[in-house]
DNA sequence: ATGGTCGTCGTACGA
């Protein structure tokens, strides 16, 4: 089973790139974040011929939004709270029908958190920390089994998840309070599948800012996108690939897709 | 030293 997660930064603008991604990699499942389209305007007919006939989406006007496309039947899993009491379309959970037991798949878009890393001065940062606290509490009560969690978590937790650990310690996405919060969440019972395949001693990024003229030359990236698995799937992971070349596509997203091959049977 | 660039909506705001 091949799963891709991608912050597409506007589904409607990048429909041709989604098509290209599906043609090149033939995934069985794609999880998107920042679709930025209200459900009423979801371009489903433009996607009829993708070969991923099962899909679910949760979107709003302009901001956020998540979607999942699948070759296999999906069932919405909706017994989750509205995180932070907001209906801001940051989480979609589905059960994937496989020949064996189903797989529970979470697609998350964690709040970015604004620029100032102080919850008393910046309510977006407070929202981010509260979001992490709520998800952590929830998974503590319900440790994951046969589960995959993917998405744009907007935190680069390890030193080699950023281009300069020292220079980013006070930059939102790599502050100690964030990386510690993310560690608490993953420690509710997940494994960082990307770092199981690509050792923590290697630099690994999934996002490069639009603000650098030459993303490849400056290479000031961060690993903001993640794939986590429950321990019972640990031996099933076959490969993980960061599709960095997608950053060079025409009108690219600032995030690149991350792909996992897993044999869940 | 502190810009720099996108996408969406509508000429600001979030990332």
UniProtKB/TrEMBL annotation:
Gene3D superfamilies given in the database record: Endonuclease/exonuclease/phosphatase (3.60.10.10)
Site description Interaction with DNA substrate, residues in chain: 255
Residues marked Transition state stabilizer (site): 154
E.C. code: 3.1.11.2
GO MF, any single term: DNA binding
Record text on cofactor binding: Probably binds two magnesium or manganese ions per subunit.
Active site residues according to the UniProt entry: 109, 152, 255
Listed cofactors: Mg(2+); Mn(2+)
TM annotation in the entry: none
Pfam families hit by this protein: Exo_endo_phos (PF03372)
Domain of life: Bacteria
Record's keyword terms, sorted: Hydrolase, Magnesium, Manganese, Metal-binding
Residues covered by the Endonuclease/exonuclease/phosphatase domain: 4-255
Binding site for Mg(2+): 7, 34, 152, 154, 254-255
EC top class named in words: hydrolase
InterPro entries associated with the record: AP_endonuc_1, AP_endonuclease_F1_BS, Endo/exonu/phosph_ase_sf, Endo/exonuclease/phosphatase, ExoIII-like
Positions bearing the site annotation: Important for catalytic activity: 225
GO biological process: one example: DNA repair
PANTHER family: EXODEOXYRIBONUCLEASE III
Family: Belongs to the DNA repair enzymes AP/ExoA family.
The protein, known as: Exodeoxyribonuclease III
Organism: Swingsia samuiensis
């Amino acid at each position: 089973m091949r799963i891709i997660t991608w912050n597409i930064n506007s589904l409607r603008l990048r429909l041709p790139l989604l098509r290209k991604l599906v043609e090149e990699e033939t995934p069985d499942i794609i999880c998107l974040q920042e679709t930025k389209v209200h459900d009423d305007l979801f371009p489903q007919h433009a996607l009829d011929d993708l070969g991923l006939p099962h899909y679910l989406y949760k979107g709003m006007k302009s901001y956020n939004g998540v979607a999942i496309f699948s070759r296999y039947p999906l069932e919405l899993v909706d017994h989750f709270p509205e995180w932070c009491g907001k209906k801001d379309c940051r989480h979609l959970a589905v059960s994937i029908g496989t020949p064996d037991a189903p797989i529970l798949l979470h697609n998350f878009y964690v709040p970015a958190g604004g620029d100032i890393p102080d919850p008393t001065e910046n309510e977006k940062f407070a929202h981010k920390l509260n979001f992490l606290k709520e998800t952590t509490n929830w998974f503590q009560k319900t440790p994951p089994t046969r589960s995959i969690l993917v998405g744009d978590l907007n935190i680069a937790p390890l030193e080699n998840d950023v281009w300069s650990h020292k220079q980013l310690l006070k930059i939102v996405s790599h502050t100690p309070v964030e990386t510690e919060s993310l560690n608490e969440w993953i420690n509710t019972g997940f494994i960082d599948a990307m770092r199981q395949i690509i050792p923590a001693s290697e630099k690994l990024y999934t996002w490069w800012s639009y603000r650098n003229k030459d993303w490849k030359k400056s290479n000031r990236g961060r690993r903001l996108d993640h794939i986590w698995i429950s321990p019972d799937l640990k031996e099933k992971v076959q490969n993980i690939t960061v599709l960095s070349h997608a950053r060079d596509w025409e009108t690219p997203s600032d995030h690149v897709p991350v792909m996992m091959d897993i044999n869940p049977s």
